[in-house]
Structures are given as structure tokens and as C-alpha cells.
Amino acid sequence: RGSLLFLDLMAPPRSASLLGPPPRSVAMLLLSASASGSWTAGTGVGPAIGIGRHASRPAMAPRIGCPLPQPRVQPASMCDAVGSVAPLEQPGRWSSGLGIRNRLRLLRRSWVIWSCCVLQAWRVFVLRRKYADRRESPEAVEARRVLAAGLRDTLIRLGPTFIKVGQLLSTRVDVLPPEVIGELSRLQNEVPGFPGKRAKQLVKRELGKPVEELFASFDDAPLAAASLAQVHRARLHSGDEVVVKVQRENLRQLFDVDLFNIRLVASLADRLDPQTEALASNWRGVAETSGDVLYREIDFRIEQHAATEFRANFAKDKTIKVPAMYPELCTSRLLTMEYCPGKKITDTEALQREGFDADHLAKTLTTSYLEQICRHGFFHCDPHPGNLAVDDGFPGGRLIYYDFGMMERVEVEVKRGFVDLIFSIYQNMPREACDALETMGVLRKGVDRFSIERIARNMLGSFQSTLASADNKWENEMTPEEKRESRRNRRAQLGQDLFATQAERPFLFPPKFTFVFRAFSTIDGIGKTLTGPRYDLSRISQPYLRELADLRDGSALKSAALELGRRVGWRPQDVAQLVTQPRAVAGVAQTVRKLEEGDLKLRVRTLEVERMIERVELRQRFIGAGVASALLLHISLGATLHRLAARVVQVIAARVAWECWNAWLALKKLTVQQLRFENEDTVYDTM
Fold it and tell me: Engineered SS bond to 269: which of 68, 230, 283, 501, CB 3.0-4.6 Å?
């Protein structure tokens, strides 16, 4: 009864809309995903929410870092466990129509999710405490990798929602360390498929006709099965070979319950997890972005339109193949597309056997992705080897793109800012580079630009010197000792500016940029698989980016004329400055006069004073919270207080003690940062 009363109290007014378009209460939203049975692969902490009518009890959780559990193909029980959600009782009024069993399933699923989250959070806390002073040591890196392997296993056991969220988290290079990214990148969403008979029933339900009337043949066995859908090969009556992508049932209800809990976990993580230096990132934003992507991915109409647009963008490119869609055989939960067989792009033996040119394929993959971002502004978010294949439609090999469920669009302003950034990098223009970063939304507007521009000037100078001489090395070509020496030299020149920058956190990381970075990382790995160490993403990209910079004004001739005008001072803004110079000089004279008369006051920023004030504030928080916590604890132990009042005071004391602990951690972190930017030896020099 207490659990039911708790859920009743959670219900907001009918007008509140939390997770989806239709207004609903939190309890109604969560209960929409309840079902009988449990996730067959196991949860590790107890029975999960029922996702199938015949699901069995969960298996015990494997130990952290053990090999991934291999799903076994079982009878209909296993297939239904992943493929469907049992229907709920018809909800009437909240107090009478939902039934105790459905509410208990809701509590069970939420309990499983929160138990896994608490367990993982505790493991992270223990690891951080153990390696607090040697975060980048080989032992700490290996411990994080083992912990990430356990997280990956947990996500697999929790089911489709968490598998997809884990795949999205593997793109967040801004909030997760490289070893965690590496483990999450290995997440596979391959699961046992549901029966072909059930797939035919779903096709009939979506298209309104039996499969025999729609297709000349339809394979019962799926070509592939994933957490969200499975694909069947078929043939139309016209003779065209197609594949039919059939979505699993009731995914939206499952997403509702899981994403609600994920958002709550993300809100807690925002309060407990320290931010990255100089970078503003938030777990709540990650959860919101993941939810938006997941809901879009299960609307196959969006994927249909995305594939059509993507195909039109490369219609004139003979080196790229995109499957054609059959709109009359597509719905929001069903896709029918052209069958485009090919060799997997990372199957080097098969590619060599067929006579494909590995260098040509690597260059085609790289330039096609640059084309998507810089010219089309519409790019594939997940170009992993499973979504890429090669056929013989072009000499040396033609690249085939699959799966358009995760696509993103680059706004016109962001694309223009990116082109300006590339131009300013090659022309060594640090101020214009910072302006471009502001246009792209990466640099906050209104921050102190002095330190950032100094850092940009140093970075661009290093870039230009590396381009100018073949003897200079890129950082990824340096040995670890050379990297450390380069970073120490940079800190010696820019220590104060780097410290001021990280204190203000001026940089943002738009979520869609994480897909770009993840994609380029994947493309780099594919390129090295194809051609070995001689593949260099930056060198292949340079001619394309130079051409892009030259065409930023519409044509190479116009860009060259404007650049000549910039160098000789004949640009329209230069002429305008010449004409308005007397007025500007008069304004400067007026300002100097006000300074002499005392009407203006100068504001000077002193970094040393800022450091001192920040340290004093942290010490005050630490000492004040510590004294207050000890005093409250002493009062709670007194004999004059009632037991209930004493417990309340102890809870308050614990909260104040937590504030004391956070202040101490912040003070310790500030000390390490100051040593680092003063070029002293710290744990950062072991990187």
C-alpha cells in the first residue's frame, strides 16, 4: 500500500507533459511500458520489467570486465522477450483501472535501473578515491577500462534503450575518458530476432495487405536483427530486390519508462560529477539529446526522408551508392528499400580478393564525409563498419552507405562559421578564428577574449610552423617524451592565460559536434585498417579544406581578390576606417579628457588576485561547513533533544559535511591546477 500511495503522490496534474507529446502523469507514463516477464539476458540485481510474454528469470550478472555475454538463440520466449511488450490492463482512473500487478512491474523495472546506477556510481567513487593522486597512471587507466567493460555489460543486460544510450555516450568525447569511450564503442546492438511469422503479421498490420499480395517472396529468416528492428530480404512482383526493415513492438513505451529514469539519474550526476576544465558540459543535456535521438530513430518516416535527401546529395557522385526507398511500402514502423549487397569495408581479405583499391576507398570515405559536413550540411552520425560496404559500381570500388536513422543537420550559420574557422587557421588569423568559434556556438559570447586569443595565436603559429617544414612533427607523430616537453613549453608561455581560461569555462560543446568527432575517429580507424600506417586523415583532408577555404566567398577568384585587398588595405572596411579616422581620434581624445578629469575609472583584471580570492573562498567554505557540521552533530548527541529531532539534526549535519567534502575536493583540484599552469610537475605530466 505504501508503494501505491507513493506512486499516487508522484502523479502531476493532467496538463503536465513530461516526456512526450500527449499530456500524462509520471505514473501513467511509466506504467505504459510495464509488461509481464523480465529481460532474459539478466539484470544482475534482480528481475527486470517484463518485455515479453514468455521471458524467463534473469541470469546473474557477470563480474566486471568479463567477456560480453553471447545471446543464445532460443525458442519463442527469447524472441518475444526482445521483440514485444505485453499489453497493459486498460487504464481507467488512476486509483482503480491500472491494477496492482502493473504497478509492481513498474517498481521492479525502476528498482533494477536505479540499483544498477547506484552500483556503477559506487564503483566510480571507489576508483576515483583509490587513484586520486595518479589519475593517468597505467594502473588507473586499466582500472577505468575494466570498470567501463562492466558498464558495457550492464547496459547490454538492461536492454534496447540502454544499448542505444550507451552507443550515444560513446560519442561524448567531451565528458568521458578515452578508455571508457573505447569500451562503449564496442557495444553491439545485435540481439536474437523475432520469428518471421510475427514479422509478416507486423507487415500486414502496417501496410494493410498480406505479405503475399505485396511481395513475390519474403524470407522468414532475417538478414540481421538489432535492438530496434530486424531486416528481411524480399522481392517485389516487379522483380526488384528489396529489404524490409521491421520495427520491434512497443519500443516507445519502453523508451518512456527508461528515459524517465535516465533523466533522473542525469540530474543527480550533474550535482555530483565535477565539470571538465574550461568546458561546460552537463549530463542532463546528454540525457535530453539521447532521448531526442532515440525517439527520432524509431520514427521510420524520418529515416525514409533522410535517406532520400542523402541519396539526392550524392546523386552525381559515381563513387557513392545510397539505397533507394519505396515510399508506398514505408510507414512509421516499416521501411522498404533497395537491396544493395556489398563487401564489408573492413574485410580487407575480401576487398583484395575482389581487386578493390584500398587507397581509393580510404580517400573516398574521408572526402565524402567532409562533403556531408562542409557542403551539404546534412551528415551521417554513425559511419561505423557495419553501415558501410563496397561494391564494383566504380573502378577501384564504390562506397555504399546504410542505416539513416541517426542523421544530423548543420545550420547555415554553423557551417559558415566552420568555413571561416578553416580559412582563419590556414591564414593564421587568431582573432577571426575566435569569431568563427563564437559563430559556431563553441565559444561563449561575452567572455574575456584576451587570453583566448593569445592561446589561439600560439596554436596557429605552431600549426603554421609545422606546415612550413617537413622536419616539424604533428603532435600525434611525437613520442610521449616529446609530447610532454611540447606541453611544458606551451604552459611556460601561456600558463596564466590557460589558468584564466579554465576558470571561466568559456567553451561549450554542442551535442551534434560529438557525432562529428566520433565519426572522424571511426573513419580514421577504418582508414588505418584499409591502408595501414600510411593513412593520415589530416593530410587527406588538407587539399579539400584548402579548396573549401578558397571557395568561402563563392569562387576562388573572389576569395583571392578579397585576400589581396586585406593584405594591401583596400577592403571596404579599410576604406571606411580611413574615412572615419578623424572621428575616431576625436573620440579617443574625449575619453582621455574624461580620464584626466576623473569621470572614468579603469577596471584592471589581476589573475594573481583572482587566484588568491578563489582559494580564500574555498577555505572559508571548507572551514565553515566543517565547524557547522561538527556543531550540529554535537547538538544531536545531546540528551535534551527528542529522538526524532536528533535524527533531523543529524541529517542536516550530514548535508553540511557533504558541502565540506566538496569544498575540500575543489581546493585540492585548484592547487593541482595552479601547479600545472605554473609548470610544476603534477599528475598531468604523466599523460
Answer: 283
Burial class (CB in 10 A: 0-12, 13-18, 19+), 566: middle
Identify which of 359, 329, 328, 354 has the alpha carbon closest to the alpha carbon of residue 341: 354
Amino acid identity of residue 186, one-letter, is R
pTM for the model stands at: 0.64
In terms of pLDDT, which residue wins out, 279 or 204? 204
Answer for the pair 673, 502: CB distance below 8 angstroms, yes or no. Answer: yes
> Residues for the chain: how many in total?
687
pLDDT digits (tens, 9 = 90+) for 14-33: 333 333 333 333 333 333 33
Evaluate if residue 96 carries a pLDDT over 70: no
Classify residue 154 as exposed, middle or buried by CB count within 10 Å of its CB (0-12, 13-18, 19+).
buried
Contact indicator for 335, 210 with CB cutoff of 8 Å? no
- Asked if residue 497 lies in contact with residue 448, where contact means CB atoms within 8 angstroms, the answer is no
Q: What is the pLDDT of residues 254-285, one digit of tens each?
A: 888 888 888 888 887 776 665 544 444 567 77
Q: Is 242 helix (H, G, I), strand (E, B) or coil?
A: strand
CB within 8 A of 487, min separation 6: which ones?
685
- Check pLDDT > 90 for residue 207: yes
> Among all chains, which residue has been given the C-alpha cell 520466449?
77
Is 382 in the active site? yes
Q: Hey, what amino acid is at 420?
A: D
Residue 195 φ/ψ region, left for φ over 0, alpha for ψ in the -120 to 50 degree band, beta for the rest: beta
Q: Single out the residue of 360, 378, 415, 432 nearest to residue 548, CA to CA.
A: 415
**Is 80 exceeded by the pLDDT of residue 106?**
no
Name the more confident of 672 and 540: 540
Residue 288 pLDDT > 50: yes
Side chain identity, residue 35: A
- In this predicted model, which residue has the larger pLDDT, 510 or 119? 119
Least confident of 41-45, 248-252, 383-387: 41-45
Q: In whole angstroms, how far apart are CA 596 and each of 244, 585, 590?
A: 80, 17, 10
Looking at the predicted structure, is the pLDDT value of residue 607 above 80? Answer: no
DSSP string, 428-449: T-HHHHHHHHHHHTSB-TTS-H
Provide Rg for the chain, Cα atoms: 29
The H or E element spanning position 492 is: helix 480-504
153, 174, 256, 382: the active-site residue:
382
Name residue, grid cell 508503494: 3
Angle of helix 138-158 relative to helix 160-169, nearest 10 degrees? 150
Amino acid at 407: M
pLDDT at 170: 75
Distances (CA, A) of 666 to 269, 622, 624: 17, 10, 15
Phi, psi of 183 (to 5 degrees): -70, -45
Residue pair 372/313 in contact (Cβ under 8 Å)? The answer is: yes
Distance CA 30, CA 111 (A): 13
Angular region, 408: left φ>0, alpha ψ -120 to 50, beta rest: beta
Average pLDDT of span 524-551: 78
Burial class (CB in 10 A: 0-12, 13-18, 19+), 425: buried
pLDDT(232) > 90: yes
Among candidates 28, 32, 36, which has minimal Cα distance to 86? 36
Using a 10 angstrom Cβ sphere, with 0-12 exposed, 13-18 middle and 19 or more buried, the burial of residue 264 is: middle
